[in-house]
Structure formats: C-alpha cells, structure tokens
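User: Second chain of the day. Same drill as before.
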Amino acid sequence: MAYTVGLIATDGCLSKGHLIDLTSKDREQLENYIKCLGINNKIGKKDSGQGKTAFRVQFRNVFFYNFLVSLGLSPAKSKTIGVLKIPNKYFFDFLRGSFDGDGCSYSY
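Assistant: Same format as last time:
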C-alpha cells in the first residue's frame, strides 16, 4: 500500500468526486499498481500531449481517497503538497513508489 501511495504522490491525481487517477508511460507499473490495490480496473490509453501514448488507471473509492487526504495528499497537490504522514516502517516502500513514479530526486 505504501508503494501505491508513493506512486500517487508523484504521478497520481486526486479529483473531485473521489476520483483517483494514475498515469504512466510504463504499462507494467500500472499492472502492479492494480494488483497492489486489489482492483479490477482496465488500463486505458491517453495522449501524453507530446504525440506519445501514456497509460491510465482511474477509479473512485471514497475510503481510499479519504485515506490519501489524511496522509497529506490533495487535489492540485503540485501546488499544495507538504509533509506526508508516512509511518516509519512503511517509508522505504513509499520511497520506492516515489522513485518509480517520478524517476528522480533532488537534494538541497
């Protein structure tokens, strides 16, 4: 679960109506995401805006959405994200999801 939170924190989106969206160029990553969440959603396709195809999984789940908000995620997270409340024992799984989602990190 912590891995999926990392993916959502970097490449995901929370929208109105309790919609959770994850878009990636890596279809296998989305297949793993679906397995981790135990959902049966199909993987859709989306134009990445650069003439390339990206893959997308969207679903609605009030409980999971509210759980993500309780951790510190929010709609328009790129403008509002702060410290996420990830328990220490799950931090490295979360970090792996973050790296797999974003692919890079910065240190200042």
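The mean pLDDT is 79.

User: Great, on to the next one.
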